[in-house]
Design a protein that fits this description.
101 residues; mainly alpha; 64% helix; globular
Amino acid sequence: MTPDEKNQVLFIQLISIFQYQAMLHMGKMKHPVTEKIERDLAQAEQAIDMLDMIKEKTKASVTADEQKMLSTVLQELKINFVDEKAKGDTRPAVEHPEAQQ
């Protein structure tokens, strides 16, 4: 594998990590440890913001396919986020232990 191919795989993995985190925090899938649907829109929004920042910072150096993938992922996440936000607080928010300190 060439360095460019390796970087392309790593870039896609990075995007996938933030996509997974956003979907998990929007309550679109079960938490892998608790097996429960947990919703934390602030964390979901942060993951989406991270992807927006990555898109902005890398726009001059990614391939057209990478740019298209990132744009598609962001569009999907933003639509889902707006949908979840419109539902309001229908599910309990996750408490963060660090916030209690």
